[in-house]
Design brief:
- By secondary structure, this protein is of the alpha+beta class.
- Among the domains are: about 240 residues, Beta-galactosidase, Chain A, domain 5; about 90 residues, Golgi alpha-mannosidase II (Immunoglobulin-like), CATH 2.60.40.1180.
- Helix content is about 20%, strand content about 30%.
- The chain is built from 15 helices and 39 strands.
- The chain binds alpha-D-galactopyranose.
- Alpha-D-galactopyranose (GLA) binds next to loops.
- Alpha-D-galactopyranose binds next to loops.
Length: about 725
């Protein structure tokens, strides 16, 4: 077992391949404290590291039951309102109005494997993969149990944490805050990495020094959001892609979140992550439980790159499910940027005919095929075919596409309802709204109240009906607005604080039902581009549309941030037409192809209308995809240079697990006068293997390629790119 308890020392030690996480129990009260998280330790005798010292200003000794102890002690999970004045992990409201919680150890259990989280997305693992420690803490006065769960993977440097609360008392209480993890560390000159953005500009990486006080990212939009990402990394201020300590924290959840770092007066650092406490209040009846979502913690002593690769391996093998998990995805062509709402059967078939001849494997019909959806002001919720556009019906179209040897995919936005829709006229109370207040419109639409079973059932039935009416093999599940005006016909003063989380449970239930009933369906999540690109959604769909920005240059920073935590196989990336519809930029078709190859790969253009010289490049791009996708999907990702940082060029590579091949993508964003070819140091090769650079006679040892590098020829013009492929020779 890679988790052990030392009875005498009262120390729990959790080991992964290269890391240890150590927890100690102190005092007669049995406070549970944090001792160590870092490089692997061989022994248990590290209790001396436990900070039980009292604050320097405390005049008397043996003062443990006073705030001096609580406010210094590095806890595994904090109570509230009893003397630790740093931010708390949990708080409650009792019938008498009290909020205090004081937690000590009640019991523990260690077992092989990992349990499912009821109703929530979660990483998984068999007995051979991981072990779990469950520490049950309790507040003796409230008779409230707080079960901290830690799963340590054997071969991956990942520890998964979650929290479950059970009210064992006689009285109901309200849970007003519940973080999924808390980690108290010594403040040691850390930087923090977070991701920020906007629509069409998601997950731009920000790195800055951790300062005194609190700093955080979060969302109260009802989705993980375009603006801030449920991820935070703490790293040595000198850490690079290859060196230094890095601690990553990633929330497996798609709704409101908070990730917060707090540096206290005693130079300690508290990291917390969980559901955002704003507007959260969960009723815990006597005997009932609440399960909070999980956080994936990854520690790397070898820089940011190693953290990325651990997340990639964990998500590829222990989060993503379904029949496409380990499979190459069909190259798709999506008609959104090609036609927007103006399409009909003939137009789509013309695109499909041309596309199939070029080697494209699936047609995806985007928004606009249902109800009277002629623009984005109407018809969401009316999931029946618009026969004015789709003459002959959906099955006819799908059959014709299938006859071309192509698969067919379809777009839905199941969580929404337009005020101008048959659904709204029949069920106005199904939209989220506060009685007496006109809810804010966003993109002309409201959100369905998925906290209600009948709404979830209706939505599922609508999807099921369409999906069984023709041979539909792919669904793009979109979600194009944030949640506001939280209320609804069945929401009252007691339940409104449960709304955001219950909404997410409704979404998760819908997607679980969908992939259970249609196990061979390829599901791609999307949210106005990448507003819900998070590990929660990855549990249901193996890929997510990365951003509505398809410009190859804008995509560099978006895909860099995304690939820092997510495997390339999950990033929806397409080649689109120019001038780009979001930024008006013209880039070479070749560059657009190279950048999209780092993701799922597909097209988002009217292939009957693009310039001939672009169209003739498609078969070549298609064969590049087939040649490189196994490597891109399954290999180890290394970042060499970041355009986001250097403002001139971008470079990343993927090395196969057996280190026999390596693909390097180089994008020269801006050309410069008076500089020559660029030297690139390759990473992650086997130093002893000999590699040949495709298209050249050059055969070099891995060590030479890594230490001395290769030369990338200067390219003429801006926005130019080049792929370099290394393969082992005997
Ligand atoms: C969102 C998606 C786009 C497209 C439109 C359709 O913006 O991200 O890809 O599907 O909706 O309305």
């Amino acid at each position: 077992m890679n988790i052990q308890y030392h009875e005498e020392l009262k120390i729990f030690k959790l080991d992964t391949k290269n890391t240890s996480y150590v927890i100690g129990v102190v005092d007669e009260e049995e406070f549970v404290g944090h001792i160590y998280y870092g490089k692997k330790l061989d022994e248990f005798q590290v209790g001396y590291l436990m900070r039980t010292e009292e604050a320097p200003f405390v005049p008397s000794k043996n003062n443990r039951d006073r705030t001096s102890f609580y406010d210094c002690f590095p806890v595994e999970y904090t109570g509230h309102g009893v003397g630790d004045f740093r931010d708390s992990s949990i708080s409650v409201k009792t019938k008498a109005g009290h909020s205090a919680v004081c937690l000590t150890l009640k019991s523990y259990e260690i077992y092989a494997g990992k349990k499912k989280l009821q109703g929530l997305p979660a990483t998984f693992g068999e007995e051979a993969d991981c072990s779990t420690l469950e520490l049950t803490l309790w507040d003796k006065v409230l008779n409230l149990e707080v079960m901290l769960s830690y799963t340590a993977y054997r071969e991956l440097d990942a520890i998964i944490r979650s929290v479950k609360v059970k009210n064992c008392g006689q009285e109901s209480l309200v849970l007003t805050k519940i973080m999924s993890m808390c980690l108290d560390m010594d403040q040691d000159g850390y930087d923090m990495i977070t991701m920020h953005g906007s629509w069409a500009r998601e997950r731009h990486v920000q790195r800055k020094a951790v300062g005194l006080g609190k700093q955080s990212v979060g969302s109260v939009r009802g989705e993980s959001s375009h603006q801030e990402h449920p991820f935070l990394a703490l790293l040595d201020d000198k850490a690079t892609q290859e060196s230094g300590n890095v601690y990553g924290f990633h929330f497996v959840y798609s709704g409101n979140f908070l990730a917060q770092v707090e540096v206290s007066q005693f130079d300690s650092l508290r990291m917390m992550m969980g559901i955002h406490p704003t507007d959260f209040a969960w009723n815990l009846q006597a005997g009932s439980e609440f399960q909070a979502p999980e956080v994936v913690m990854v520690y790397s002593s070898e820089g940011i790159g190693q953290m990325s690769r651990t997340y990639h391996d964990l998500y590829r093998n222990h989060l993503i499910r379904g029949s496409y998990k380990d499979k190459k995805r069909p190259i798709l062509i999506n008609n959104w940027e090609a036609t927007y709402f103006e399409f009909d059967t003939d137009k789509l078939l013309n695109i499909a005919r041309e596309a199939s001849g070029l080697g494209i494997e699936m047609l995806v019909m985007d928004d606009g095929w249902f109800g009277n959806r002629f623009d984005d002001n109407r018809a969401l919720g009316d999931w029946f075919v618009n026969e004015e556009k789709l003459k002959g019906g959906l099955k006819y179209l799908v059959d014709e596409v299938n006859k071309l040897g192509m698969k067919f995919g379809i777009w839905f936005e199941p969580e929404m309802i337009s005020p101008d829709s048959e659904l709204y006229r029949a069920h106005p109370d199904w939209a989220i709204a506060i009685d007496g207040r006109t809810p804010s419109l966003c993109r002309g639409q409201y959100v369905l109240d998925l906290t209600r079973k009948e709404v979830v059932d209706y939505t599922f039935e609508s999807l099921r009906k369409i999906l069984t009416s023709a041979n539909i093999e792919y669904v793009k599940w979109d979600m194009n607005r944030q949640l506001t005006d939280i209320g609804g016909a069945f929401t009252n003063a007691d339940s409104v604080g449960e709304f955001y989380h219950r909404y997410m449970l409704g979404v998760y239930e819908l997607q679980e039902r969908l992939i259970t009933e249609f196990p061979n369906l390829l599901l791609e999540n999307c949210s106005g581009g990448g507003a819900r690109f998070d590990p929660g959604m990855l549990y249901y769909s193996p890929q997510i549309w990365c951003s509505d920005d398809t410009d190859a240059i804008e995509r560099l920073a978006i895909q860099e941030g995304t690939a820092m935590i997510y495997p390339l196989s999950t990033m929806g990336a397409h080649v689109s037409d120019c001038p780009n519809h979001t930024v008006g930029r013209n880039t070479p078709f070749e560059t657009r192809g190279h950048v999209a190859l780092a993701g799922t790969f597909g097209y988002e253009l009217d292939v009957t209308k693009i310039p001939e010289e672009d169209r003739t490049m498609i078969p070549e791009q298609v064969s590049m995809y087939h040649k490189y996708n196994d490597l891109v999907r399954t290999g180890d990702y290394y970042r060499i240079a970041s355009y986001h940082e250097n403002h001139f060029y971008d470079c990343y590579q993927v090395v196969s697990k057996d280190k026999t091949e390596c693909l390097i993508t180089f994008v020269q964003v801006l050309n410069r006068p008076n500089y020559k070819n660029r030297r690139i140091l390759i990473k992650g090769l086997n130093p002893e293997f000999r590699y040949q650079l495709e298209g050249s006679e050059l055969v070099l040892k891995g060590s030479t390629l890594m230490h001395a590098g290769i030369m990338v020829e200067k390219l003429w013009g801006d926005f130019r790119s080049k792929l370099l492929y290394l393969k082992v020779v005997q």
